[in-house]
Protein backbone atom coordinates (compact mmCIF):
# COMPACT_ATOMS: atom_id res chain seq x y z
CA UNK A 1 0.00 0.00 0.00
CA UNK A 2 1.44 3.36 -1.02
CA UNK A 3 0.93 6.79 0.51
CA UNK A 4 -0.73 9.60 -1.39
CA UNK A 5 2.07 12.01 -2.23
CA UNK A 6 1.06 15.68 -2.26
CA UNK A 7 3.30 18.59 -3.25
CA UNK A 8 3.59 22.24 -2.22
CA UNK A 9 5.32 24.02 -5.12
CA UNK A 10 6.23 27.16 -3.15
CA UNK A 11 8.49 25.21 -0.76
CA UNK A 12 8.96 21.99 -2.80
CA UNK A 13 7.60 20.12 0.22
CA UNK A 14 6.07 16.67 0.00
CA UNK A 15 3.15 15.94 2.30
CA UNK A 16 2.14 12.31 2.66
CA UNK A 17 -1.31 10.96 3.33
CA UNK A 18 -1.36 7.41 4.67
CA UNK A 19 -4.66 5.58 4.63
CA UNK A 20 -6.04 2.57 6.42
CA UNK A 21 -8.45 1.25 3.79
CA UNK A 22 -10.34 -0.88 6.29
CA UNK A 23 -11.39 1.93 8.62
CA UNK A 24 -10.90 5.02 6.35
CA UNK A 25 -8.56 6.41 8.99
CA UNK A 26 -5.70 8.58 7.69
CA UNK A 27 -2.59 10.45 8.82
CA UNK A 28 -0.79 13.38 7.23
CA UNK A 29 2.97 13.72 7.48
CA UNK A 30 4.31 17.28 7.12
CA UNK A 31 1.17 19.13 5.97
CA UNK A 32 1.66 22.72 4.68
CA UNK A 33 -0.55 25.66 5.69
CA UNK A 34 -0.96 26.94 2.14
CA UNK A 35 -2.38 23.55 1.13
CA UNK A 36 -5.02 23.29 3.85
CA UNK A 37 -7.95 23.54 1.46
CA UNK A 38 -6.45 20.94 -0.88
CA UNK A 39 -5.77 18.48 1.95
CA UNK A 40 -9.27 18.88 3.39
CA UNK A 41 -10.71 18.32 -0.11
CA UNK A 42 -8.67 15.12 -0.59
CA UNK A 43 -9.84 13.79 2.78
CA UNK A 44 -13.43 14.60 1.95
CA UNK A 45 -13.34 13.18 -1.57
CA UNK A 46 -12.00 9.89 -0.28
CA UNK A 47 -14.24 9.74 2.76
CA UNK A 48 -11.32 9.74 5.19
CA UNK A 49 -11.14 10.64 8.85
CA UNK A 50 -7.86 12.32 9.75
CA UNK A 51 -6.50 10.67 12.89
CA UNK A 52 -3.09 12.35 13.12
CA UNK A 53 -0.91 15.07 11.74
CA UNK A 54 2.76 14.23 12.20
CA UNK A 55 5.83 16.44 11.78
CA UNK A 56 9.27 15.17 10.85
CA UNK A 57 10.81 18.30 12.41
CA UNK A 58 10.15 22.02 13.03
CA UNK A 59 10.38 23.29 9.47
CA UNK A 60 12.35 26.38 8.48
CA UNK A 61 10.96 26.91 5.00
CA UNK A 62 7.17 26.67 5.35
CA UNK A 63 4.49 26.67 8.03
CA UNK A 64 2.69 23.52 9.08
CA UNK A 65 -1.09 23.26 8.95
CA UNK A 66 -1.12 20.82 11.90
CA UNK A 67 -2.95 23.19 14.23
CA UNK A 68 -5.46 24.11 11.54
CA UNK A 69 -6.06 20.45 10.70
CA UNK A 70 -6.71 19.76 14.36
CA UNK A 71 -9.32 22.53 14.29
CA UNK A 72 -10.87 21.71 10.92
CA UNK A 73 -10.63 17.94 10.76
CA UNK A 74 -10.38 16.88 14.40
CA UNK A 75 -6.89 15.42 13.96
CA UNK A 76 -4.54 14.89 16.87
CA UNK A 77 -1.10 16.41 16.49
CA UNK A 78 2.15 14.52 17.00
CA UNK A 79 5.70 15.82 16.76
CA UNK A 80 9.21 14.68 17.69
CA UNK A 81 9.86 15.23 21.38
CA UNK A 82 13.18 16.95 20.70
CA UNK A 83 11.77 19.64 18.39
CA UNK A 84 10.26 21.94 21.00
CA UNK A 85 6.80 21.85 19.40
CA UNK A 86 5.08 22.21 22.76
CA UNK A 87 1.60 22.49 21.23
CA UNK A 88 1.69 18.95 19.76
CA UNK A 89 -0.64 16.66 21.68
CA UNK A 90 1.79 13.72 21.49
CA UNK A 91 5.55 14.07 21.85
CA UNK A 92 7.18 11.19 20.01
CA UNK A 93 10.27 9.27 21.12
CA UNK A 94 12.44 6.77 19.24
CA UNK A 95 10.76 3.36 19.11
CA UNK A 96 7.26 4.71 19.67
CA UNK A 97 4.46 3.54 17.46
CA UNK A 98 1.48 5.54 16.29
CA UNK A 99 -1.75 3.77 15.38
CA UNK A 100 -4.40 4.84 12.88
CA UNK A 101 -7.22 2.41 12.24
CA UNK A 102 -5.56 -1.00 11.99
CA UNK A 103 -2.28 0.47 10.78
CA UNK A 104 0.84 1.36 12.72
CA UNK A 105 3.74 3.72 12.09
CA UNK A 106 7.11 3.27 13.69
CA UNK A 107 9.13 6.23 14.96
CA UNK A 108 12.87 6.56 14.24
CA UNK A 109 14.90 9.35 15.82
CA UNK A 110 17.33 10.58 13.17
CA UNK A 111 19.06 13.74 14.43
CA UNK A 112 21.23 15.78 12.10
CA UNK A 113 19.16 18.18 9.98
CA UNK A 114 17.80 19.26 13.37
CA UNK A 115 18.50 17.61 16.71
CA UNK A 116 14.92 16.41 17.05
CA UNK A 117 14.34 15.23 13.45
CA UNK A 118 12.54 11.94 12.98
CA UNK A 119 11.69 9.50 10.19
CA UNK A 120 8.62 7.28 10.09
CA UNK A 121 8.48 3.70 8.92
CA UNK A 122 5.32 2.16 7.51
CA UNK A 123 4.88 -1.04 5.51
CA UNK A 124 8.41 -1.18 4.14
CA UNK A 125 8.44 2.53 3.34
CA UNK A 126 10.29 5.28 5.18
CA UNK A 127 9.26 8.95 5.33
CA UNK A 128 12.59 10.63 5.73
CA UNK A 129 11.68 14.30 6.16
CA UNK A 130 14.87 16.27 5.54
CA UNK A 131 17.17 13.59 6.97
CA UNK A 132 17.65 11.81 3.64
CA UNK A 133 16.65 13.40 0.34
CA UNK A 134 16.92 11.78 -3.09
CA UNK A 135 20.58 12.12 -4.01
CA UNK A 136 21.00 14.52 -1.10
CA UNK A 137 20.24 15.18 2.53
CA UNK A 138 19.02 18.00 4.73
CA UNK A 139 21.41 20.81 5.46
CA UNK A 140 22.98 20.93 8.93
CA UNK A 141 23.96 24.57 9.27
CA UNK A 142 21.12 25.91 11.44
CA UNK A 143 18.48 24.87 14.00
CA UNK A 144 20.74 22.58 16.06
CA UNK A 145 21.91 20.79 12.92
CA UNK A 146 24.94 18.51 13.09
CA UNK A 147 26.70 16.88 10.14
CA UNK A 148 28.20 14.21 12.43
CA UNK A 149 24.78 13.31 13.82
CA UNK A 150 23.30 13.25 10.31
CA UNK A 151 26.03 10.91 9.07
CA UNK A 152 25.27 8.56 11.93
CA UNK A 153 21.50 8.74 11.40
CA UNK A 154 21.74 8.01 7.69
CA UNK A 155 24.41 5.31 7.80
CA UNK A 156 23.40 3.57 11.04
CA UNK A 157 19.63 4.04 11.25
CA UNK A 158 18.32 4.47 7.69
CA UNK A 159 20.89 2.38 5.83
CA UNK A 160 20.20 -0.42 8.34
CA UNK A 161 16.75 -0.77 6.76
CA UNK A 162 16.29 -3.37 3.99
CA UNK A 163 17.56 -2.17 0.61
CA UNK A 164 14.13 -2.37 -0.96
CA UNK A 165 12.62 0.03 1.61
CA UNK A 166 10.99 2.85 -0.35
CA UNK A 167 12.29 6.33 0.53
CA UNK A 168 9.71 9.12 0.49
CA UNK A 169 11.60 12.40 1.02
CA UNK A 170 10.37 15.60 2.70
CA UNK A 171 11.41 17.71 -0.29
CA UNK A 172 12.64 17.39 -3.77
CA UNK A 173 13.77 20.45 -5.67
CA UNK A 174 13.95 18.64 -9.02
CA UNK A 175 10.63 16.84 -9.23
CA UNK A 176 11.87 13.38 -8.21
CA UNK A 177 9.31 11.51 -6.15
CA UNK A 178 10.76 8.43 -4.51
CA UNK A 179 13.84 6.31 -4.12
CA UNK A 180 14.95 3.26 -2.16
CA UNK A 181 17.43 2.73 0.64
CA UNK A 182 19.51 0.49 -1.68
CA UNK A 183 19.63 3.19 -4.35
CA UNK A 184 20.69 5.90 -1.91
CA UNK A 185 23.31 3.62 -0.33
CA UNK A 186 24.75 3.01 -3.79
CA UNK A 187 24.56 6.39 -5.39
CA UNK A 188 23.72 9.28 -3.04
CA UNK A 189 26.58 11.64 -3.94
CA UNK A 190 26.74 13.19 -0.48
CA UNK A 191 27.14 9.99 1.50
CA UNK A 192 27.56 6.84 -0.62
CA UNK A 193 31.00 5.43 0.15
CA UNK A 194 31.99 8.57 2.07
CA UNK A 195 33.78 8.65 5.42
CA UNK A 196 32.44 10.75 8.28
CA UNK A 197 35.21 13.31 7.67
CA UNK A 198 34.41 13.54 3.96
CA UNK A 199 30.70 13.95 4.67
CA UNK A 200 31.33 16.67 7.28
CA UNK A 201 33.61 18.52 4.85
CA UNK A 202 30.94 18.33 2.11
CA UNK A 203 28.26 19.68 4.45
CA UNK A 204 30.51 22.49 5.65
CA UNK A 205 31.25 23.53 2.09
CA UNK A 206 27.59 23.77 1.00
CA UNK A 207 27.22 27.45 1.81
CA UNK A 208 23.47 27.60 1.10
CA UNK A 209 21.44 30.78 1.57
CA UNK A 210 19.07 30.64 4.54
CA UNK A 211 15.49 29.63 3.72
CA UNK A 212 13.61 32.82 2.94
CA UNK A 213 10.89 32.27 5.49
CA UNK A 214 12.99 30.90 8.37
CA UNK A 215 12.39 33.82 10.77
CA UNK A 216 8.66 33.49 10.36
CA UNK A 217 8.35 29.72 9.90
CA UNK A 218 10.29 28.36 12.88
CA UNK A 219 8.43 30.32 15.60
CA UNK A 220 5.10 29.52 13.94
CA UNK A 221 5.94 25.82 13.64
CA UNK A 222 6.86 25.64 17.31
CA UNK A 223 3.17 26.37 17.87
CA UNK A 224 1.86 23.90 15.26
CA UNK A 225 1.48 26.78 12.81
CA UNK A 226 -0.98 28.65 14.97
CA UNK A 227 1.51 31.21 16.25
CA UNK A 228 0.81 34.90 16.29
CA UNK A 229 2.80 37.33 14.21
CA UNK A 230 6.42 36.20 14.44
CA UNK A 231 8.73 37.88 16.88
CA UNK A 232 10.41 40.66 14.96
CA UNK A 233 14.04 40.22 14.05
CA UNK A 234 16.64 42.72 12.94
CA UNK A 235 17.33 46.08 14.49
CA UNK A 236 15.13 46.98 17.42
CA UNK A 237 16.09 50.66 17.17
CA UNK A 238 16.12 53.06 14.24
CA UNK A 239 19.56 53.79 12.81
CA UNK A 240 20.61 57.44 12.90
CA UNK A 241 20.24 59.32 9.61
CA UNK A 242 21.00 62.74 8.14
CA UNK A 243 18.08 65.11 7.81
CA UNK A 244 15.31 62.83 9.12
CA UNK A 245 14.54 60.80 12.25
CA UNK A 246 16.19 57.53 11.17
CA UNK A 247 16.38 54.40 9.04
CA UNK A 248 14.37 51.36 10.12
CA UNK A 249 14.30 47.73 9.03
CA UNK A 250 11.09 46.33 7.56
CA UNK A 251 10.67 44.28 10.76
CA UNK A 252 10.79 47.34 13.01
CA UNK A 253 8.48 49.22 10.65
CA UNK A 254 6.07 46.30 10.75
CA UNK A 255 6.07 46.29 14.55
CA UNK A 256 5.36 50.03 14.78
CA UNK A 257 2.70 49.82 12.14
CA UNK A 258 0.94 46.87 13.75
CA UNK A 259 1.00 48.63 17.10
CA UNK A 260 -0.56 51.71 15.48
CA UNK A 261 2.51 53.75 16.37
CA UNK A 262 3.20 54.97 12.85
CA UNK A 263 1.53 55.69 9.54
CA UNK A 264 2.92 53.78 6.55
CA UNK A 265 3.27 55.80 3.35
CA UNK A 266 4.25 54.29 0.00
CA UNK A 267 5.86 57.02 -2.12
CA UNK A 268 6.00 55.07 -5.41
CA UNK A 269 3.81 55.90 -8.38
CA UNK A 270 0.46 54.28 -9.07
CA UNK A 271 2.01 52.41 -12.01
CA UNK A 272 4.73 50.88 -9.85
CA UNK A 273 2.28 49.69 -7.26
CA UNK A 274 0.16 48.13 -9.97
CA UNK A 275 3.13 46.44 -11.53
CA UNK A 276 5.26 45.33 -8.59
CA UNK A 277 2.78 44.93 -5.77
CA UNK A 278 1.74 46.87 -2.75
CA UNK A 279 1.32 46.71 0.99
CA UNK A 280 -2.37 46.78 1.88
CA UNK A 281 -3.08 49.55 4.32
CA UNK A 282 -0.17 51.71 3.17
CA UNK A 283 -1.22 55.18 2.08
CA UNK A 284 -0.19 56.05 -1.45
CA UNK A 285 1.44 59.48 -1.67
CA UNK A 286 3.75 59.60 -4.68
CA UNK A 287 7.09 61.40 -4.34
CA UNK A 288 7.87 62.90 -7.71
CA UNK A 289 11.35 64.12 -8.32
CA UNK A 290 11.93 64.50 -11.99
CA UNK A 291 14.22 67.34 -13.03
CA UNK A 292 12.89 70.86 -13.05
CA UNK A 293 9.92 70.03 -10.93
CA UNK A 294 8.90 72.61 -8.44
CA UNK A 295 8.30 71.62 -4.85
CA UNK A 296 5.71 68.94 -4.63
CA UNK A 297 2.77 70.68 -2.98
CA UNK A 298 0.47 67.73 -3.46
CA UNK A 299 2.91 65.61 -1.51
CA UNK A 300 3.08 68.10 1.34
CA UNK A 301 -0.64 68.43 1.77
CA UNK A 302 -1.32 64.70 1.40
CA UNK A 303 1.35 63.87 3.96
CA UNK A 304 0.10 66.46 6.43
CA UNK A 305 -3.36 65.00 6.10
CA UNK A 306 -2.11 61.41 6.54
CA UNK A 307 -0.03 61.81 9.68
CA UNK A 308 -1.73 62.84 12.91
CA UNK A 309 -0.23 65.64 14.99
CA UNK A 310 2.88 64.36 16.80
CA UNK A 311 2.75 61.01 14.90
CA UNK A 312 5.50 59.10 13.13
CA UNK A 313 5.57 58.32 9.43
CA UNK A 314 7.30 55.36 7.76
CA UNK A 315 8.27 55.93 4.13
CA UNK A 316 8.56 53.12 1.64
CA UNK A 317 9.67 53.13 -2.00
CA UNK A 318 11.31 50.74 -4.45
CA UNK A 319 14.97 50.94 -3.47
CA UNK A 320 15.14 53.37 -0.59
CA UNK A 321 16.15 56.51 -2.55
CA UNK A 322 12.85 58.36 -2.93
CA UNK A 323 11.81 57.35 0.57
CA UNK A 324 14.90 59.14 1.93
CA UNK A 325 14.09 62.28 -0.06
CA UNK A 326 10.50 62.07 1.13
CA UNK A 327 11.62 61.55 4.74
CA UNK A 328 13.75 64.71 4.52
CA UNK A 329 10.82 66.67 3.16
CA UNK A 330 8.51 65.28 5.85
CA UNK A 331 11.04 66.38 8.47
CA UNK A 332 10.99 69.91 7.02
CA UNK A 333 7.23 69.79 7.46
CA UNK A 334 7.76 69.02 11.17
CA UNK A 335 6.86 65.30 10.96
CA UNK A 336 8.91 62.57 12.68
CA UNK A 337 9.87 60.60 9.59
CA UNK A 338 11.63 57.26 9.07
CA UNK A 339 12.94 55.60 5.94
CA UNK A 340 12.34 51.85 5.47
CA UNK A 341 15.69 50.38 4.46
CA UNK A 342 16.00 48.82 1.00
CA UNK A 343 12.36 49.43 0.11
CA UNK A 344 10.56 46.92 -2.04
CA UNK A 345 13.76 45.61 -3.54
CA UNK A 346 14.71 44.28 -0.13
CA UNK A 347 11.95 41.72 -0.41
CA UNK A 348 13.65 38.54 -1.58
CA UNK A 349 10.36 37.19 -2.87
CA UNK A 350 9.24 40.32 -4.67
CA UNK A 351 5.96 39.95 -6.38
CA UNK A 352 5.84 36.21 -5.81
CA UNK A 353 4.18 36.97 -2.51
CA UNK A 354 1.62 39.31 -3.90
CA UNK A 355 -1.13 36.86 -4.62
CA UNK A 356 -0.49 34.43 -1.85
CA UNK A 357 -3.79 33.24 -0.54
CA UNK A 358 -4.71 34.16 2.98
CA UNK A 359 -2.67 37.32 3.27
CA UNK A 360 -0.21 39.55 1.62
CA UNK A 361 3.40 39.20 2.64
CA UNK A 362 6.21 41.66 2.26
CA UNK A 363 9.57 40.47 3.55
CA UNK A 364 7.90 37.46 5.09
CA UNK A 365 5.72 39.58 7.38
CA UNK A 366 1.94 39.69 7.20
CA UNK A 367 1.11 43.31 6.28
CA UNK A 368 -2.58 43.19 6.63
CA UNK A 369 -4.73 45.45 8.71
CA UNK A 370 -7.22 43.74 10.93
N1 LIG B 1 15.46 27.95 -1.00
C1 LIG B 1 14.68 27.35 0.04
C2 LIG B 1 15.56 26.71 1.08
C3 LIG B 1 15.74 25.30 0.83
C4 LIG B 1 16.43 24.65 1.99
O1 LIG B 1 17.37 25.17 2.61
N2 LIG B 1 15.93 23.47 2.32
C5 LIG B 1 16.39 22.75 3.45
C6 LIG B 1 15.26 21.92 4.01
S1 LIG B 1 14.24 22.91 5.05
C7 LIG B 1 17.49 21.78 3.09
O2 LIG B 1 17.93 21.07 3.94
N3 LIG B 1 17.94 21.73 1.85
C8 LIG B 1 18.97 20.82 1.47
C9 LIG B 1 19.59 21.18 0.17
O3 LIG B 1 19.12 22.12 -0.47
O4 LIG B 1 20.56 20.49 -0.20
C10 LIG B 1 13.87 28.41 0.79
O5 LIG B 1 14.21 29.58 0.74
O6 LIG B 1 12.93 28.01 1.47
FE1 LIG C 1 13.75 21.24 6.98
Describe the overall structure.
By secondary structure, this protein is of the alpha/beta class. It folds into 2 domains: 218 residues, Ribonuclease Z/Hydroxyacylglutathione hydrolase-like (Metallo-beta-lactamase, Chain A, 4-Layer Sandwich); 121 residues, 3-Layer(aba) Sandwich (Oxidized Rhodanese, domain 1). It contains 10 helices and 21 strands. The strands form 5 sheets. Strands 1-2-3-4-5-6 form a 6-stranded mixed beta sheet, covered by helices on one side. Strands 7-8-9-10-13-14 form a 6-stranded mixed beta sheet. Strands 15-19-18-16-17 form a 5-stranded parallel beta sheet. Strand 16, helix 8 and strand 17 form a beta-alpha-beta unit. The chain is elongated, with a radius of gyration of 25 Å. About 4% of the residues have low confidence. Glutathione binds next to loops.
Helix count from the secondary structure assignment: 10
Strand content: 15-25%
Number of domains: 2
Total DSSP E strands: 21
Largest sheet, strands/sense/barrel: 6 strands, mixed
Shape: elongated
> What is the CATH-assigned architecture of the largest domain?
4-Layer Sandwich
Oligomer: single chain
- The assigned structural class equals alpha/beta
- Topology-level CATH name of the largest domain: Metallo-beta-lactamase, Chain A
Q: What small molecules accompany the polymer chains?
A: glutathione, fe (ii) ion
Q: Rounded to an integer, what's the Rg over CA atoms?
A: 25 Å
Strand arrangement across the biggest beta sheet: 1-2-3-4-5-6
Distance between the termini: 46 Å
Please report the first level of CATH classification, the CATH class of the largest domain.
Answer: Alpha Beta
Poorly predicted regions are 229-233, 350-359
* Fraction in helix: 10-25%
What's the CATH superfamily of the largest domain, by name?
Ribonuclease Z/Hydroxyacylglutathione hydrolase-like
Mean of residue pLDDT values: 89
Amino acid sequence: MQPIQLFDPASSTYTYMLVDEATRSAVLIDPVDQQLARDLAVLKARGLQLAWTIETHAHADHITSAGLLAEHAGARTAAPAGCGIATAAVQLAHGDTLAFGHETLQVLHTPGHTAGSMCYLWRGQVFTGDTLLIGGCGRTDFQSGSAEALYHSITQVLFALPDDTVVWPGHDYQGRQRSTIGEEKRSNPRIAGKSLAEFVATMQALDLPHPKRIDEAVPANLQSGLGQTPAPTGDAQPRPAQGYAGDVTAELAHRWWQAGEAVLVDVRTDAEREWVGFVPGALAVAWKQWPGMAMNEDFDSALRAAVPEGGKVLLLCRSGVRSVAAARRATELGIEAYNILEGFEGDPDGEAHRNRKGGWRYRGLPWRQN
